[in-house]
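Give me structure tokens for this 570-residue protein.
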Amino acid sequence: MHNMARKLLLREIKNLKWQRKLSTSAVFRKDDFIIKSTVPDIVVPKTRFIDRLWEESAGYKNQVALESAETKKTYTYSQLEKNTSAFATSLIKKFGLKPGDVVAVMLPNCPEFPVVAFGSLQAGCVLTTVNPIYKEFELAHQVSITEPKVFVTLPECYDTVTKSLNAAKIKAKIILVDSPNKPVPDGVSRYTEVAESGEADYKLLDKIERKGNDIACIPFSSGTTGLPKGVEITYDNILAGMEMMSQKENSFPTLANDNYQDILPAFLPFFHIYGLVIGLLGHLSKGCKLVTMSKFSASMYLDILKTQKTTLLYIVPPVAILLGKHPDVNEGHYRHVRHIICGAAPLAASDVEAILQKSKRAIEFNQGFGMTETTSLATSTFKGTKNVDFNACGVPMANVELKFADPITGEAVPIGQSGEMYIRSPTIMKGYHKNPKATEESMTKDGFFKTGDLGYYKPGSGLYITDRIKELIKVKGMQVAPAELESLLRSHPAVQDAAVIGVPHQFYGEAPKAFIIRKNGLKITEEELQDFVASKVAVYKKIEEVMFVDDIPKTASGKILRKELKKMYA
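Here you go.
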């Protein structure tokens, strides 16, 4: 599929003159190139986020909202709502925060995460989510851009946080999520006192006003190139996403009541847009029980599937491969499962079929495409779709429009032809935080976001992603920017120049491979360079392979020719 799509794209580029003539011909209007959703448009509600979150909660207040798989700590929905409001009140009264001030949360998946995340929004603050395995180098970059006033994290991350804040010259008050009987450093607040013991001042919170176009959260994405960028997600983006997920075609959870609730393992990181929007918002607003996993463990995950009567599974391709190929997985793991939804990266149809064969019962398998810049939502396999092609990743959700453009000229191509995918919808980000140049480069004048993904749309089947124009490497569904790793490698005293590409990996999808030019007379081993990078970045960014070369192919302007490197690797 990938090779065929590449050949097709090359043929199209060679026939560029014909394409340009075709796309500007009187036979076609601009709208002829746009793929629209078959679902009726939604209207973005003019309501407060917190009111929309708890809109349907009256019938499941006593149900468990979150349970930690590791500690067994739980919050019921009534506790979650109370703690969220208490945390919001504390941000205003205790810490003196005002609407628009930034709160950073650097936590693994745990019951406390949504209290901090949604309490920050309830207080009118801007939330920025941080990967809890980030090292000082990565964290300093993020805090220098977002400038948080409050930072919520674990004791294990405290030293990294303080060093990063100091390096970025940012003063932030720190809240630690820890055991109440353990001491905390001077000047540091306890989460339990701020959220669980605190009192909610609803009169104060009801006075907080935020506009639809105000920024709600700033998760980080690598965009199309370069170092990770802060993505401005507005309240309207979030509210639109919640409405889109509530349409019957895409609403996988059943609304809970006192007698029933859907149960799902929540290992997709809450700091990532997929886990934050689809995992938390899409399911806490419906009364589901989320069994949180602070990190993925195959044995723990499979145990949850067997013991928790799980009904919904949200996965990424490496977990799909595990479910289809692990020798211990059997029909007992799928006994109560109704839907399996996969996203974050393309998945082969053979991997889906392996899962369905093991389940030995009727389970609907759905796929979707989304990005941080689209608030995680764009396409999805609609519920009840017959004769699904599992190589495709769905059709446009409500209000979503797609078009494909020639990757060289930027001109739209007819539906069915390959090109770079553009997306327009009410979930498209406001822009990259403090980076107008990157924002301008990623958007068209008529409001389409340029995804950097190559693909095509087949009416009746859906969206096919075939390759990426952008340089990002997708490791276990997580974005890795080559430029970030290259700048690190070049900082090593024995490295003259470096280039990084993604290469296929059996379990991760892709993994970073580095091409290194040594400085004259200096020696360095592959292992030494791998350890150097690993000491400074999160584990999923580690260099899988190193190749020492005499030359790195570049353009006249100095841009690395990654396609040439991939040819050399192949």
